[in-house]
Specification:
By secondary structure, the chain is α/β, with parallel strands linked by helices. The protein is about 50% helix and about 20% strand. The longest helix has about 35 residues. The structure holds adenosine-5'-triphosphate and magnesium ion.
């Protein structure tokens, strides 16, 4: 709306201000009359886990189109392009110049010793950490923590953590519905505001031909999110747990739900940070199975894991990170059977 106003003559912009005041009042009334999702959202907010919100924060504007064009990498297949990424915590330089690209459909597995910076790299990718320097370009758009597209970017990235990070005070189905409902309502409000603005404008300006957008009701948004959540639960064989609370589930079940919760936002890439390392051994298989199925479905993935057998089977490429840099980058067969870097050889001798 502000962008539209900037292009208008002064008199029109003044009129737009009046309209916006009216719209704000009307919206406040509409919200008061129809707010039936607030309990779900507020309850989750009270839990306040930063990680859990990584998958739920997503409601801002798209980055300017020209920025996207200017930085589009040469290869259209590249989804994530990381160049000379550095990240320090105080004097501790954790990432010391990471450069790599992830192509659409690739399954990149990251291995490396504890403290080498694997989680920090993933957290930089979905902007839970701000890099000290370097660039990350996602599908042609440079990530800029100061830019409002940060939340839109997070919609594109599903993140799954070692400790599930489900909201314990919400049922399974509410956990899965939370982000789609929240973002659906935010999108709907933008469209509703635009529709109101145009309706008012058309009253005064008979030449205004712009089409008034339609938008779903909150009930429709919730229904769609519910249907999608139930379909996802069916896909992983946990339909009977829809109304259960996370505390009643096994670790393997929680992690499978955390995965479909991330999938509910239809992400372009899934980031997994040691998704099985907190599980009892007998539950590792069921979680890896879900990830494998996703991989077979063509999802782009970046997976930090110590499951070497899984990496061999699923990865298209394995990165060995040590002391904040990529020491080796090769297809699994090559990296595991013919490691070149001395530190990688030492690492593999411990984990294989
Ligand atoms: N928020 C933070 N504040 C300060 N230091 C941090 C923070 N996050 C990570 N670090 C430090 O950065 C280094 C790398 O941590 P990171 O979690 O990325 O390692 P990792 O490779 O994922 O290790 P692990 O295999 O144990 O999970 C560690 O020394 C850690 O203490
Ligand atoms: Mg880690």
């Amino acid at each position: 709306m502000e962008k539209d106003k900037a292009k208008m003559p002064a008199a029109d912009a003044a009129q737009a201000d009046v309209f916006e005041n009216i719209i704000d009042s009307v919206e406040a009334v509409q919200d008061a009359a129809t707010e039936n999702n607030s309990v779900l959202i507020q309850d989750a907010e009270e839990v306040g886990a930063e990680e859990a919100h990584a998958n739920t924060e997503a409601q801002e504007e798209t980055a300017p189109a020209q920025a996207k064009e200017a930085h589009r990498p040469d290869c259209d297949d590249v989804l994530i392009s990381i160049t000379d990424l550095h990240k320090s915590f105080g004097k501790n330089e954790v990432l010391r110049g990471v450069t790599t690209q992830v192509k659409k459909g690739e399954k990149v597995v990251i291995i490396g010793p504890s403290g080498s910076g694997k989680s920090t790299l993933l957290r930089c990718l979905n902007m839970m950490e701000t890099p000290t320097s370097g660039t990350i370009i996602f599908d042609g758009t440079p990530l800029d923590p100061k830019h409002s597209s940060i939340n839109l970017h997070r919609r594109s990235m599903g993140m799954v953590f070692q400790h599930f990070n489900l909201f314990n005070n919400l049922t399974v189905v509410e956990n899965i519905m939370l982000a789609p409902v929240k973002t659906g309502i935010a999108d709907m409000k933008k469209l509703r505001k635009k529709a109101l603005f145009l309706k008012l404008r058309k009253l005064f300006d008979k030449n205004c031909t712009e089409e008034i957008p339609t938008y779903p009701s909150k009930a429709e948004i919730r229904k769609k999110a519910l249907d999608n959540a139930l379909a996802l639960l069916e896909r992983i064989g946990l339909s009977d747990k829809a109304t259960a609370y996370p505390s009643t589930l096994s670790g393997g079940q929680k992690q499978r739900i955390a995965i479909v919760r991330a999938l509910a936002m239809h992400p372009r890439v899934m980031l997994f940070d040691e998704p099985t390392s907190a599980l009892d051994p007998e539950m590792v298989g069921e979680v890896l199975e879900v990830i494998k199925e996703l991989a077979e479905g063509g999802m782009t993935m970046v997976i930090v894991t110590h499951e070497i057998g899984f990496a061999r089977e699923v990865a298209t490429r394995v990165l060995f990170i040590d002391e904040g840099v990529i020491k080796e980058d090769a297809p699994p067969k090559e990296l595991f059977t013919n490691p070149k870097d001395a530190r990688l050889k030492e690492f593999l001798s411990k984990v294989l």
